[in-house]
Amino acid sequence: MSVESYRKQILDEIENSRRRAAAAPDTPGGVDVDAAVALLADRAAPADERRLALQTLKQAATHHPAYDEWRPRYLEALRTAARSRDRELREAAAATLAQYKDPWIQERLLDGFRDPSAALVPPEDALQLLGYDPHAEVQRVAERIADDPPSPEARREALRVLASDPGSEQRFAELFGDRTESPEVRRLAATALSSIAPGTFRRVAEDVVAEATAEPLALDAEPAATAAPPDEVARHAARLLALVERAERRLGGPSR
Amino acid sequence: MTFELEIHGSADPGARYLSYAPSPARIRSTDPTATAGTEVTLESRALRPGGGVAVFYPATGPPDEPEDTLTLTVPPYGQWVDFRLAGKWDHPSVDDRDCEVSVSAGGETRAAIELMVRVRKDAERLEPAERDRFLEAFGVLNDRGLGKFADFRATHVDAAYRQAHGGPQFLPWHRAYLLDLERELQAVDPSVSLHYWRWDAPAPSLFHEDFIGIPGAGGVVHFTPGHPLETWITDGRPGIRRRPHFDTRAEGASFPFRGNRFAPHGQAETLDLGAAYPQFAGMENNPHGWAHVSFEGDISVIDTAARDPLFFMLHANVDRLWALWQWTHGRTRPDDPESYLGQEEDGRRLADTLWPWNEVETPPRPDFAPGGPLADSPTTSAPGPQPTLGALIDLQGTNDPTHRLGYGYDSVPYEHALG
């Protein structure tokens, strides 16, 4: 298509969109932030209207010129909404607060592990949200859940929280090398281990890849020269090995 | 007779990447026995079906229309002759070095080089190999959470809101941010561009476990085993939280609204926001903001959005729409208030340097500045390591060739400034 034809196409599209806009249904217009914050915090308002207020405030938080001014009130309204009886509203508010690393929601989520009757969201969701800011107490909870999980989902999210914890090196090395574990958990363990302890990861990964390919890994070969292992865990390990080796080349030596 | 070609002032293959905007090039004879000038013809062809093709301009001034061939007289040994080279509109490359530029004289080909017409494309239309190179580069840049991507993640946060959002600087700031990331991706693989997500159309190839992933267990994105982003870690946490509010296989972005569905502005509506910058800049609200919150998860909040690679593809579409608006309305002159109208606040005036690349950590700027200077490129010296806002306006060098940023879009042509 020539540039001239393309320009005509663009201008025609603009004209057509004007005609469509004239017939558009009621849509969100300019946000009245004060009204939306008040609605979000209003425990007596219908939950679906409060959820819509939350959505419009999240949107406004991406562009509003005075965001810094109303942010504190927004967070306070979210905290009110996070105590709603409506599950959808409660979870949406909790998730948004967690993404802001709000200390209040972190304490409420941790409370749910101390007293399950006080839990705002299921344990796997709580762990996922606490994972936005995995400080020491969060990691302690994650360790407990990883050792004694109420569900496979909670265990998975606990492991995700521990992924940045150097103290979990042994745990992840064992999980990664354990062929009785699910591929999902083994891949997660491999990823975490490759980041917190690349040297240990390499040792386990070479065994995992070698087992899958049933031949000794050519240590001197370029990663691309090694046949792609058929096992999905081994394939994942091979990819991580390539990243580790690339980093080692850049840094001029093997990892610990 | 033998000849040597340089593009972007270099014979290095690393400089052989074109966009649709004219790039400086030159040719000289390397035959020490030549005693007279030689008439040569430059031409280009794709080296594979659907490959890139280049076009030619004389060294300076009009014509404004590119030519498929260019005839030059090359002096005897050693003296360069300048010309300009660009990707041919609607003929981008699909692979590195799939475009050939050749030099013929006396009816014979005397020299040829391979290069790439490299532009950002609609991610939904990428060939599998293009997609895989893109993903591979992202995975390497992230490097299990230990790579340079961490700086990009650390930059786009609420604490730096006023540097990048809530004002006219939104579009140029994000242009610089994406350019910096793209150049780091190209340091991994120079054939990669930062492709865009068109939120106003279904994207079943993009929202697929082979590409940007699908919602998995617990709202964490699932990829095909062996996928480059399976190793993705940000803030010490593996995985990406993302759940769409719409059917990604069948719809463009939208979310439920009072019994209907509300969709962010599409391309035409966005271009029609207005012909002057203050009007167009309203796109930060709609469609940009609504595109973000068409998902639940990392991408829906500024503080965590950059944890998701899709965020960068969303913003590549934001930038593409701006570039398309600039082309449609001729808004590429930084000193024209209809092209950009700033505000009296640091980081919003044309002459202001942009955070974090200016490495300023004192008020009113944030008290941190991740990443250092903006990455350089073998194809252009613009916008510089510590760019001013004004250096991000004329991305194709339409008015001033020294402003050419070295990238472009499959859907934004180049046209020489008129008058």
Task: Describe, in plain words, how this protein is organized in 3D.
The complex is a heterodimer of chains A (256) and B (419). Chain A has helices spanning 3-22, 33-41, 47-60, 67-81, 87-99, 103-114, 123-130, 136-147, 152-161, 169-177, 183-196, 198-213, 232-251. With 256 residues, chain A is an all-alpha fold. Chain A is flat. In chain B, a hairpin with a 2-residue loop joins strand 12 and strand 13. The longest helix of chain B is centred in the last third of the chain and has 21 residues, at 309-329. Chain B has helices spanning 128-142, 149-155, 161-164, 170-188, 267-271, 277-280, 285-292, 302-305, 309-329; strands at residues 3-7, 17-18, 23-29, 38-46, 54-58, 69-74, 81-87, 99-105, 108-117, 214-215, 221-222, 233-234, 237-238, 242-244, 255-257, 260-262, 295-297. In chain B, the strands form 6 sheets. Chain B has a 5-stranded mixed sheet, with no helix packed on it. A 4-stranded antiparallel sheet of chain B has the order 1-3-7-5, with no helix packed on it. Chain B is an alpha+beta fold and 419 residues long. In chain B, helix 4 crosses helix 9 (309-329). The relative contact order of chain B is 0.14. At the A-B interface, helix 1, helix 3, helix 4, helix 5 and helix 7 of A face strand 13, helix 5, helix 7 and helix 8 of B.
Task: Write a concise keyword list for the protein shown above.
heterodimer; A: 256 residues; mainly alpha; 13 helices; flat; B: 419 residues; alpha+beta; five-stranded mixed beta sheet; four-stranded antiparallel beta sheet; 9 helices; 21% helix; globular
Give the helix proportion of chain A (percent range): 55-70%
Oligomer: heterodimer
Please state the CA-atom Rg of chain A, rounded to the nearest Å.
Answer: 25 Å
Order of helices and strands of chain A: HHHHHHHHHHHHH
Counting H and I runs of at least 4 residues, what is the number of helices of chain B? 9
- Count of extended strands of chain B: 17
* Main sheet attributes: strand count, strand direction, barrel closure of chain A: none
The side-by-side strand order for the widest beta sheet of chain B comes to 2-9-8-4-6
Estimate the global geometry of chain A from the Cα principal axes: flat
Return the average pLDDT of chain A rounded to an integer: 89
Strand fraction band of chain B? 15-25%
Distance between the termini of chain A: 57 Å
Structural class of chain A: mainly alpha
How far apart the termini of chain B lie comes to 41 Å
Helix fraction of chain B, binned, reads: 10-25%
Point out poorly predicted stretches of chain A.
Answer: 216-226
Total strand count of chain A, please? 0
Low-confidence stretches of chain B: none
Largest sheet of chain B: 5 strands, mixed
- Helix-strand topology string of chain B: EEEEEEEEEHHHHEEEEEEEHHHEHH
